[in-house]
User: What shape does this take?
Amino acid sequence: MSMLEAAHENDVELEGACEGSLACSTCHVIVTDVNYYNKLEDPVDEENDMLDLAFGLTETSRLGCQVIASPELDGIRLALPAATRNFAVDGHVAKSH
Ligand code: FES
Assistant: This one.
């Protein structure tokens, strides 16, 4: 289960606009302890691209839909950023390439 799914199952308001398809940054979370952050798999390029668009990016930011629960992560604490950017809602008009 991803942190995004865990949040939704526990009524935590983590948006997840693209439902985990790495096409948004609304599931941005901040790992509060760098030791836990270092246990995570490195983000793939697509995740880094989306994180670059995230509001309030930090050194320990990740996308919640990409952090998968595992025994090693037992006790991990995540903070939600003060805001998120959702281009679909905030008036961004997608252009074709
Ligand atoms: Fe969109 Fe995680 S829900 S990237």
